[in-house]
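Two proteins, back to back. First:
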Amino acid sequence: MRRVVVISTGGTIASRWQGEGYAAQAGGSEVLASAPVPEGLDVRVVDLFTVNSSRITTAHQLELLRTVREVLTDPEVAGVVVTHGTDTLEESAYLLSLFHDDPRPVVFTGAQQPLEVADGDAPGNLYDALLTASCGRDTGVVIVFAGLVHEARGTVKVHTLAPQAFADPCGSPLGRVEFGRVTWLRRPDRTPALELRLPGPGGRLPRVDIVMHHTGADTLLLDAVLAAGAEGVVLVGTGAGNATPDIAAAVACAVDSGVLVALSTRVQTGPVAALYTGGGAVDLAAVGALLSGSLRAGQTRIAVLASLLSAGPAATAAERTDVLRRVLDGAAVEPPLSVPAGSRRSAA
């Protein structure tokens, strides 16, 4: 019997009707009871917390990371399944992937339909996740949803309600689950795990905020998050990662003060690329913003957060930047638009 541990955190897969809407309520054993268990598996359940995933905090995510590591101290465990709400599943999965260095898989799954809905997607997703956790050695942290296996890095929620809720806009699935077996299409390129350095007693976790550029935008929101004590900021640019000269100047001041700044894009598909000046990614990279490659905004924020947690509270700005640069190098994608010969392209 292969042992798989299910860590339950809530979300739609654990939700019931509350009179005016759905909310996470069911424990892990109830969620597991809704699904068939693949033959030959011994499944144990850990009830970690039961919340809607829109309420997940960094503290929740670090508790999940600690629990996964604790579960994997048992050599009899073949893999771990995390049941999680779909709203922030992509963020928790990516955070764990950056710190996960065990060959045994951690498989995230959830549901688009609540627990007690007839013919809902929870049983199938959980069955597929259990199967993947039992055989996905050396695949790292993955997301299993609607019959597909996705790499944590780059995979995001692409539809609010449809069963096929997750995809990597810039990549392809790792595998598929059908007819009671997992077919691997490719293996992820696992990068070395980051070291976790948490603040001591009384210390606070780093604050990382997201600011989106739009027509008519000024520096008000960027100034506000910096005044609130943000140690990291994700600027979500237009197009391939563009803003304005005023915002570029504000980013320069933030970087000079030791704040980590990463540049993402509000466009669904394609990489961030240093192609344009006039406040574009060329100027933003020149003043110290690091380009997020193919990562969307939520996972770019996780990259910044993980870099701060890895560098530790005593690290210098240069040390923090070096960690983030290494993390983002794994998400880099060469843009299809070429730059004229002899010109300079700034990149993370």
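And the second protein:
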Amino acid sequence: MTRTRFIGKTVLITGAGTGMGRAAALRLVAEGAELVLVGRRPEPINRLLGEIDASGGAAIALAGDIADNEAVAAIVEKTIARFGRLDAVFANAGVLGEFKPLAVTDGDDFDALIDTNLKGTFFTIKHCLPFLEGGSILINASWTAAGVMPGAGAYASTKGALLAMMRTLAAEQGPRNVRINAINPGIILTPMADDVIDPAFAARLAAHTPLRRNGTSEDIAGTVAWLLSHDAAFVTGQEITVDGGYTLGGLRP
């Protein structure tokens, strides 16, 4: 059955060129969305734009760093100039940083993560909010915000802060009928994850997961589409964990 939940809707996706952003873009455009593809590097978003154009979909690609407040403002301005509206945002862009124990993490490590993961997400939301009456925002957080992966403490700290931001925004924006939610992806084998997860480690993680596999970006895309759509019209202020059961407590069979 062809889904048409996003016909006439414009969705902005940060970090759209690869991984979960790319998979979400392909899912949303298949459901009729007009897309704004945002990424720091022009090449990946332009490749994706070419695929969408070839499929008959509507999209624009806008290169920019979400850590740059003025660049984000310009991206949103161009979005409204092109489509005249904005209905949903997938605030997906983020960086992993260097894996190291917190005891040897320094201020520069935190600065880079805070600039993109926390401030960059905030800039994205802040500039989009005026155009989102009745719209929806989804923040890409992480299972590590409530779980523990040694070496990812600085990264997890920024993701935990995003969940606090999400809940506050949901309360503040609810009277405008703007919904704000977050997803906590589990072990998802994206290009960013591949930088720190070698095949042996990936096999150990999969063995700990009840579904006995690690996730793919496509495993996330359906949840993104649901939370941004009218099907989730009464869902706000929530974090949805999509991890194949990885974070379940207790013994494994």
